[in-house]
Amino acid sequence: MVKLSKLVLIVLAFLPCLAVNGQQITPTKEQIIALTPEWKGERLPDGRPKTNDKFIERLKKVSLEEAWGYLRNKGYHNQFEGDWMMLRAEQVMVGRAVTAQYMPLRPEWDKIIKAAGEKEGRIGGTNSWPIDVLKTGDVYVADGYGKIVDGTLIGDNLGNSIYAKSKNGVIFYGSVRDIEGLEAIQGFNAWIKGADPSYIQQMMLASINNPIRIGRATVLPGDVVLAKKGGIVFIPPHLLDDLVLNSEFVALRDAFGHQRLREGKFTPGQIDRQWTDDIKKDFLSWLDAHPEKLPMTRAELDAYMKERTW
Questions:
Q1: Of 23, 164, 213, 295, whose CA is between 20 and 30 Å from 277?
Q2: What is the pLDDT of residues 113-128, one digit of tens each?
């Protein structure tokens, strides 16, 4: 019976058109929890994993290659999407995903969606509904199925609202309008597939905070976003802390190795293979001598090194 109940929750979360009392725009908290069972920590009020803000901030310094390589080693091969148009290529964006699914307009389904939204107290156009749920640190991630002309999910008015609520930006597998107005919003950023002066037409919102596809990637509500010039990695929440610590540790190893190579103390062959006990000892002494180089606390580093095979 317990297994059956969990299965029902998962089915409802994946298929938003199936709800006990009719159309459901957003999964319940219990359904989102069922979608993200690997997360064992605190939850946001809507059920998304409440990943640690300090690790999200430290994620900004992690390269796309390091994040992508780590996830592939963990068996997650479909978490990257590249080839984006960016509002500010030099500005990194990180945060927790709020997802939205858009589809080509189907009139009778669109009527059901709007009626359900009205019953839930939602106001305005349906493309504003995902914005209403944003909180500080969220990233609005939408599948607009690559539509550019008449596929503009926001303009500068909605862009201002997004930044006011999230202090972040958007990732749209689709397009935006009013690009100059969006650029004028200080701090706002966007990864999009294009821009067009047209208004949104013949599109409908299908769901909020359900799993979506963004190009090559599958994105779940609460995934942690790492968006940079080279593309975007969507990180399962339960892997965030270890991914960041792993990247920071590799960066420390590299800094130490590069210094010792410049000094001629070790050869490339010694540094590029499994370290000997002498090199490990020298590395630990180097860490003690350079505490300013640590991006984590020493306690975090020591705990991490206990679990790591060098």
A1: 295
A2: 999 999 999 999 999 9
Tokens 């000094």 sit on residue: 263
According to DSSP, the β-strands at 194-195 and 175-176 are: parallel
* d(C-alpha 301, C-alpha 22), whole Å: 51
Q: Tell me the three state secondary structure of residue 163.
A: helix
**Residues annotated in a binding site for Mg(2+):** 178
- CB contact set of 281 (below 8 Å; sequence gap of 6+): none
- DSSP H or E run through 101: strand 93-104
Which residues define the annotated binding site?
155-158, 177-178
Q: How far apart are CA 237 and CA 137, in angstroms?
A: 14
Q: Does domain 40-235 have CATH number 3.30.460.80?
A: no
Q: What's the rounded Cα separation, in Å, for the pair 299 and 154?
A: 45
Tokens 């190795």 locate to: 257
Residues 22-74 pLDDT 10s: 568 999 999 999 999 999 999 999 999 999 999 999 999 999 999 999 999 99
How many Å apart are CA 92 and CA 88, to the nearest integer? 9
Domain boundary assignment for the chain: 40-235, 240-307
CA nearest to 147, candidates 122, 165, 127: 127
Residue numbering of the annotated binding site for substrate: 155-158, 177
**Helix H segments across the chain?**
2-14, 29-35, 53-58, 64-73, 107-119, 129-132, 156-166, 179-183, 240-263, 268-271, 277-289, 298-307
- Report residue 194 as tokens: 């294009």
DSSP 268-301: HHHHTSSPPHHHHHHHHHHHHH-GGG-SS-HHHH
Tokens read off for 130: 């995902």
Nearest to 168 by CA among 244, 66, 61, 56: 56
pTM greater than 0.85: yes
